[in-house]
């Protein structure tokens, strides 16, 4: 999966960081040390880490991901990354 979205809430810039959904690459999620959770009332799961987005972005760069864009959506900050495939 060459695309990855990570996000955090404004005022939580120090973490936690959402790093994936239930369809995310399990190897990448394991590398990040992410835990899979399902919030009561949601019919989907998400992966989270306790680190701030900056540290997550640093880790992802080390395994070949590059930042494409970043935006704010309401009270949420979102980063879109891409990894070239062979």
From TrEMBL:
Gene3D superfamilies: GTP cyclohydrolase I feedback regulatory protein GFRP. The keyword Protein transport does not apply. One of its GO terms (cellular component) is nuclear membrane. Keywords: Cytoplasm, Membrane, Nucleus. Pfam families: GFRP (PF06399). GO terms for biological process: negative regulation of biosynthetic process. Its main location: cytoplasm. It comes from the Eukaryota. The keyword Nucleus applies. It is found in: Cytoplasm, Cytosol; Nucleus membrane. GO terms for molecular function: GTP cyclohydrolase binding. Belongs to the GFRP family. This is GTP cyclohydrolase 1 feedback regulatory protein.
């Amino acid at each position: 999966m060459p695309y990855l979205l990570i996000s955090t809430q404004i005022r939580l810039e120090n973490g936690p960081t959402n790093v994936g959904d239930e369809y995310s690459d399990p190897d990448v999620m394991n590398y990040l040390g992410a835990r899979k959770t399902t919030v009561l009332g949601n019919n989907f799961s998400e992966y989270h880490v306790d680190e701030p987005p900056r540290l997550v972005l640093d880790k992802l760069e080390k395994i070949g991901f590059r930042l494409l864009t970043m935006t704010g959506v309401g009270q949420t900050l979102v980063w879109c990354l891409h990894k070239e495939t062979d």
